Amino acid sequence: MCGIVGYIGTKDAFPILIKGLKRLEYRGYDSAGVALLGDKLEVFKKAGKVSALEAFVAEKGRSSSKVGIGHTRWATHGEPNDVNAHPHLSQNGEIAIIHNGIIENYNSLKVELQQRGHKFSSDTDTEVLVHLIEDIYVNNKSLGFEESVRMALSQVIGAYAVVVLHKNMPDLLIGARKGSPMVIGIGENEHFIASDAAPLVEYTRNVVYLNDGEVAVIDKNELIIKTIENDIKTPYIQELEIHLENIEKSGYEHFMLKEIFEQPKSVHDSIRGRISLNEELIEMAGIKQYEHKWMNLKRLIIVGCGTSWHAGLVGEYLFEDLARIPVEVEYASEFRYRNPVLFEDDMVVAISQSGETADTLAAIELAKSKGATIFGICNVVGASIPRASDAGAYTHAGPEIGVASTKAFTAQVTALILIATAVGQRKGTLTKERVRTLLNELETIPSKIEKTLESNELIKYIAEEFKDVSNFLYLGRGYGFPVALEGALKLKEISYIHAEGYPAAEMKHGPIALIDEEMPVVFIATNHSNYDKVVSNIQEVKARKGKVIAVVSEGDTMIRKMADYVIEIPDCDEVLLPLLATIPLQLLSYHIAVMRGCNVDQPRNLAKSVTVE
Ligand code: G6P
What is the pLDDT of residues 123-170, one digit of tens each? Predict the structure, then answer.
């Protein structure tokens, strides 16, 4: 939610900020703004995309500046218009701030400040914070600016990543984080600051991830990191793992399409180095570290949101099947506010692409406070969730820019397959032969995904047939059920068509009432358990004149006779089914959305990383 970027150095700041904002646009795209500090402090803000801001600045003209901050917004407080866009200024116009997060006590702070004569021009919580900084600074001259920022932040309840600059201090940017991500890039006589590494990657490979409760005091040559309590910390400089080509479209029309087509590689990368076919073994550091715990687990709780929650559902089937561990899968947002019964010998697996989802982080904190062990499955290296976890596994899918998750999902499922197989092997719930089969099958999955992607043109044709409908139903059983949920979510997210996923047998308890000749029903109908029962469900839909699109195993002849359209996927072991069956559904939603003229990479109202509640 919201992308922030800052620059201090020897180059013209504006092009760096704009480029950085474009790379962060997946985090929010309803308005954007920059503050440029040169001979004067100039602020430009505009509702709409970063390109609208760019055009606005070109029209107005700007001065040159070597220091600046920029923001792309996903609105929480106040509608997305020019005034509510960031940066926000203090009352005297001397301090500018950009903010990602929510200041929960902004109302009480605002009332206090109003009583002291402050006037606010926006509806945002952020403006309150910059007025508070000003109020402390102006009324306590002995404190200094940096100290005033820290004092103001210590009064804030809520989440933030902020960057602040002062008109009369051209050698200073102050960044701070609590609950929202922030990374600092170290260059030659220059520093960058951003919500994630994407805006920095073409300028430097050396970065410092700020921890919660830390403040960065930055000039072009020096970076000082302190805690909010003013204790100096030694910056831990890490080398970036991502490269520029990972975050560009590389000839694809959309990031989402690129990421769908990257799946043979991303799944391969998730497996790489973790399985040894010769020794028939899976090696994962996160399992080794807590091997005793995994071997004796009485229960596993999986938490996540959105697509990651769907991966968690696949995990439930996997851990029960392969490792005979009872599993509960929870929406992180529900789990954190219930009074869940947790035991010290519970393991909580938190799944997240971004590693920054506020609800998942809060669920982790709750589970930790009750003594559970946390295992994080995350895509973004160094993000908050892996750092808050006791152990974990990275999914190695590479940066995912499209807001609708695709390759991150299949990488999460791959990681879960590896973990469940590794645990099952060590516990003895899997025979040697079964482990061998699974490992061999896993090795072939990237090429089977490649094969599945060959249906792209057929799927495009099917999309053309259904692009104008208002509703879709997705049905599956067993491992096909989470796939159905994920297929429905993808369609909703990017095409704005109402879609529901259901366990196929549950159709009789409600959704069947919706079926008529207008209703397309997507079935996951591969040759695995319950095949015959799914075939019966297809017949029930056809008897009511519904339109059936079936994802079937290659060579299926029975369903071909009943369904309106069939999409074949290569034969595979049942536990690997989600890795293949999800792909046609990703493509179907992609093509329908493109045909409807939707912005697939940046769907309305959504954001890739939900760092607020
Ligand atoms: C948002 C994104 C989804 C994602 C969900 C969870 O809603 O748009 O694609 O599945 O957040 O995000 P996470 O980063 O925790 O996987």
Answer: 999 999 999 999 999 999 899 999 999 999 999 998 899 999 999 999
| pTM of the entire predicted model | 0.86
In angstroms, the Cα distances linking 396 to 262, 268, 272, 304 are 12, 9, 9, 18
Q: Do 122 and 82 contact (CB within 8 A), yes or no?
A: no
pLDDT in tens, 213-230: 999 999 999 999 999 999
Active site residue 598: no
Ligand 1 atom nearest 403 alpha carbon = 8
Would you call 608 a catalytic residue per the annotation?
yes
pLDDT in tens, 454-465: 999 999 999 999
Locate 374 and state its tokens.
């946390």
Separation of CA 97 from chain center: 25
d(CA 414, CA 136): 51
Q: Which of 19, 448, 490, 608 is catalytic?
A: 608
Instruction: Say if CB 455 and CB 565 are below 8 A apart.
Output: no
Phi/psi of residue 256, nearest 5 degrees:
-60, -45
Q: How many A from CA of 409 to the centre of ligand 1?
A: 10
Could you identify the atom of ligand 1 that is nearest to the CA of residue 385? 15
What are the Cα distances from residue 278, in Å, to 203, 281, 512?
42, 8, 50
Residue to mutate, 26, 74, 353, 377, ligand 1, most ligand atoms under 8 Å from C-beta: 353
Best mutation site among 1, 195, 308 for ligand 1, i.e. most ligand atoms within 8 A of its Cβ? 308
Q: Are 13 and 62 in contact (CB under 8 A)?
A: no
Nearest-5° angle of CA 251, CA 256, CA 258? 35
Identify the residue whose C-alpha is closest to ligand 1 atom 4: 306
